[in-house]
Amino acid sequence: MNPARPIVEARAIHKHFGALHVLRGVDFTVEERQLVFVIGPSGSGKSTLLRCLNRLEEPSSGSIMVDGIDILDPRTDINKARQRIGMVFQSFNLYPHMTALGNVMLALRKVQGLDKSEAEARAQRALDRVHLADRADHYPNQLSGGQQQRVAIARSIALEPRVMLFDEPTSALDPELVGGVLAVMRELREDGMTMVVVSHEMSFARAAADRVVFMADGEILEQGPPAKLFNAPRHERLRAFISQVERH
Amino acid sequence: MTGWERFTDSFFNARVMAQYLPKIIEGFGLTIVLALCIIAAGLIAGLALAVLRALGVRPLNWLIIFVVDLFRALPPLVIIVLLFFGLPSMGMELSGFASAWLALTLVLMAFSEEIFWAGITSVPKGQWEAARSTGLNFLQALGYVVLPQALRLTIPPLTNRTIAITKGTALASVVAVPDILGAASSGLSHSFNPSPLTLGALAYLVLFFPVVLLGRWIETRFAWKR
C-alpha cells in the first residue's frame, strides 16, 4: 500500500453567520481513497464544513487545500478547482428543464469544453456507472427520488473529481429508495473514489467508512475507525448521540 | 331620420369609412412598428436590469429599484408629455414617435424587470449551488440553469403586461403621432363623423386579438410540470 497523502486538508476553519459561530477551529483531513463519514446532531456545523470544502460557503478564517490547490486563495480559479470536487446534495438539485443526459452533459460541454459527441459518450458512461443508462432521456420529474440522486451522482463523477462530497444524500429519500443510492456509493468507494459523507446512515458508516468524525457545536469532538467510535465512544456527547440515533 | 339611422350614419358611415381607411391602414402599420420597437427594447432592457440586479451589488441594486419604482409609479402619458414638451427646453428635441417609444420602453422595462427578477428569485438556491459546484461560473449558471427556469415562470405575467403596455401606443396620438388612434381622431375632426373611430377600434381588435391568443398559446406551450 502506498503511503496515503491527504487530498483534503482544512486547518483551523472558523465560520460565523452573523452572531452565530458555527465552526470553531475545525481541522479536517481526508487521505486519498478514504471514505470519511461526518456525523453529529443537527446544527453541529457538519454541512457547513462540507460546503466550505468547495467554497459554497466562505470560511471566516482558516485554510483549505484540496488536491494541492489553495481553495481560499482569491487568485485560485474556483470554477476550475470545483471540477475536482464533486458535490451531491440532499435535495438532488437536478435541472428540471434538462433530461438526465442533459444534466450530466452541461458542465462537460460548458466547463470542460468537450464537443457534443464526446460529452455525450462520457455522460452515458457516467449514467451507466449509476445503473441509469436506460433513463438518459428522462426528465427529473419522470424519475424516482433515488434515481434522481443517482443522476446527481453521475453529474458529479462525469467530471472525474478527485474527491466527492455528499451532503445528507439519502435524507430526502423514501426508505425503500435509500439502498440503491448507498449501493452506488459503495461501488464508487470500491473504485477508489475519495469521499466525504455527511449522513445519518449509521449502518453504512459502520460497514464502509474508514474513519468517522463526530462533530458537535462547531467542533470535532472525536474521530477514528467506525468500530472504535461506535463500540467504545469516549466522549459523553457522542455516547448520547449514538444511543439517540440507534433508538430510531 | 330614425334613431337607428342616426346611429349607423354616425358610427358606420360607409362613405366616411372608405375615405379614411387608407389613413387608418397607415396608422395600423405605424402602431405595429411602434409596438415592436417598445417590446424589443423594453424586454431586453428589463432582462438586462434583472441580470444586473442578480449580481447582488448593493448600491447598484438600490439604483435599479429606484429607477424601476419611478417608472412603475408615473403614468405613461405623463412620461410621454414630459419627454415631448419638456426636453426641448433642455435643447434636446424628440419626435412624437421617439417620445412615445422611449416613455413606453422605460415603463415596460420597469415592469418586466420586476417580473424577470421575481422569476430569477423563485428558482431554488440549490439550482445555483448545483451549477456552481460543477464549475459553471456565475453567468453560465444564470444562462444555462437559472434563466431557462425563470423565463418559463415569467411568461404568463410578462405576456399580460406586455399587451397592456403596448396598447398604450394609443397615447402617442397625444403628441401628434399618426398611429391608429391619431389617424382615427384626425379623421373625426375633418369629417365631423365618428366612423373613423369605429374603424380605429376594429384596427386595434385586428392587431391585438391575435396577440392575446398568441399569449394564451405561449402560456400552455411553456407550462411544464416540476
Describe this structure in words.
The complex is a heterodimer of chains A (248) and B (226). Chain A is of the alpha/beta class and 248 residues long. Chain A has a domain at 95-160. Helix content of chain A is 37%, strand content 25%. In chain A, strand 4 and strand 5 (69-70) form a beta hairpin. Chain A is globular. The termini of chain A are far apart. The mean pLDDT of chain A is 93. With 226 residues, chain B is an all-alpha fold. Chain B has a single domain (20-222), classed as MetI-like (MetI-like fold, Orthogonal Bundle). The mean pLDDT of chain B is 90. Chain A binds chain B through residues 54, 56, 79-80, 82-83, 85-87, 89, 91, 93-97, 106-107, 110-112, 141, 152, 155-156, 159, and chain B through 124, 126-127, 129-137, 140, 144-145, 148-149, 152, 224-226.
Topology of this protein?
The complex is a heterodimer of chains A (248) and B (226).
Chain A: E1 6-17, E2 20-31, E3 35-39, H1 46-53, E4 61-66, E5 69-70, H2 78-82, E6 85-88, H3 100-110, H4 116-129, H5 145-157, E7 163-167, H6 175-190, E8 194-198, H7 202-208, E9 211-216, E10 219-224, H8 226-231, H9 236-247
Parallel strand pairs in A: 3-8, 3-9, 6-7, 7-8
Antiparallel strand pairs in A: 1-2, 1-4, 4-5, 9-10
Chain B: H1 3-11, H2 14-54, H3 58-73, H4 76-86, H5 96-122, H6 125-133, H7 138-167, H8 180-191, H9 195-222
Helix pairs in contact in B: 2-5, 2-7, 2-8, 2-9, 3-5, 4-5, 5-7, 6-7, 7-9, 8-9
Which key terms come to mind for this protein?
heterodimer, A: alpha/beta, 6-stranded mixed beta sheet, 4-stranded antiparallel beta sheet, B: 226 residues, mainly alpha, MetI-like fold, 0% strand
The assembly state of the depicted protein chains is heterodimer
Overall average residue pLDDT of chain A: 93
Biggest interface, residues from each chain: A-B, 26 and 21 residues
User: How many distinct beta strands of chain A?
Assistant: 10
Percent of residues in beta strands of chain B: under 5%
Which residues of chain B sit in consecutive blocks of at least 5 with pLDDT less than 50? none
The proportion of residues forming helix of chain B, as a percent range, comes to over 70%
Please tally the helical runs of chain B, counting DSSP H or I stretches of 4 or more residues. 9
Helix tally of chain A?
9
- Biggest sheet details of chain B: none
- Write the H/E string of chain B, N to C: HHHHHHHHH
Please report which band the strand proportion of chain A falls in: under 5%, 5-15%, 15-25%, 25-35%, 35-45% or over 45%.
Answer: 25-35%
Walk across the major sheet of chain A and give the strand order.
6-7-8-3-9-10
The span between the termini of chain B is 64 Å
Structural class of chain B: mainly alpha
How many structurally independent domains of chain B? Answer: 1
Corresponding CATH superfamily of chain B: MetI-like
